[in-house]
Specification:
The structure is a homodimer of 126-residue chains. By secondary structure, chain A is mainly α. Chain A has six helices and three strands, in the order αααβααββα. The first copy, chain A, starts with 8 loop residues before the first helix and ends with a helix. At the A-B interface, helix 1, helix 2, helix 3 and helix 6 of A face helix 1, helix 2, helix 3 and helix 6 of B.
Chain lengths: 126, 126
DNA sequence: CCGCATCCTTAGAGATACTG
DNA sequence: CAGTATCTCTAAGGATGCGG
């Protein structure tokens, strides 16, 4: 079993504000991508998710899905076929998160060019 | 000089979609907190930021600010007093990002309880 | 086909001390 | 006061093989 949890960093200070834990989870590398994919495509199987998300490994996929399931954002359904079929779907909570994530994605898409331009200018200086 | 950049992971696949780079930066541990703080308090000095953000180290603060400055999200102003005074302010681009981040924060705050409940239930099972 | 367990590598983050 | 540089070390993440 891995001991990562939320990596303790937040709990170090006595603040331990739960908002930070949530933000931390959202900030996770793969969370946004998984949420976005599930929101776009609805219910997906593990393998479909894996091939939809460029670069994700089996381990990270499963791990992130576990976290999201634990947080009540994703529902995991197991159908006892042979071999077993496992599907993932956003819960209502997950869909509401999906909306927020969509806002972020929209921002990113919209301002991509500005950022690239800013970077070029920054790197050109000095 | 640090070689982190965007940690190369995204560029591995030939996709290299710039959106991912942006998402990656946003997902960074401290980015949201710095943006939020600057949005709330306006212009701040390095030290003020440091003491406003529980748990951040000098190193991470500077590093993240550099990234944000490079992306055109934060403006860095140096006043040649003795000792030197350095202030940070959100650019217009930064403020627009601040709005998106606020959405995320709001979501987190709003659904904190649901998430904690889901976790408890999840941990109780099995 | 799904995902768990193990090993291994390295980047990221802390602590500390030094320069302008 | 702001920032950089160095050293260390943890733990996130990739690769692989097994088991249901």
């Amino acid at each position: 079993m891995d001991t990562d949890q939320v990596s303790g960093r937040w709990d170090a200070g006595k603040g331990a504000c739960p908002t930070r834990q949530v933000l931390g989870r959202i900030g996770d590398t793969w969370t946004m991508l998984i949420i976005t994919t599930l929101e776009r495509d609805g219910t997906l199987r593990s393998g479909q998710l894996k091939s939809s998300i460029e670069g994700i490994t089996q381990k990270m996929l499963t791990q992130t899905l576990r976290h999201l399931e634990r947080d009540g954002v994703v529902r995991r359904d197991v159908v006892a076929t042979v071999p077993v079929t496992v599907t993932y779907t956003l819960t209502p909570l997950g869909r509401s998160l999906g909306a927020a994530v969509a806002t972020m994605r929209a921002w990113a898409y919209q301002h991509m060019d500005d950022i690239v331009a800013a970077r070029n200018e920054y790197d050109a200086r000095d």
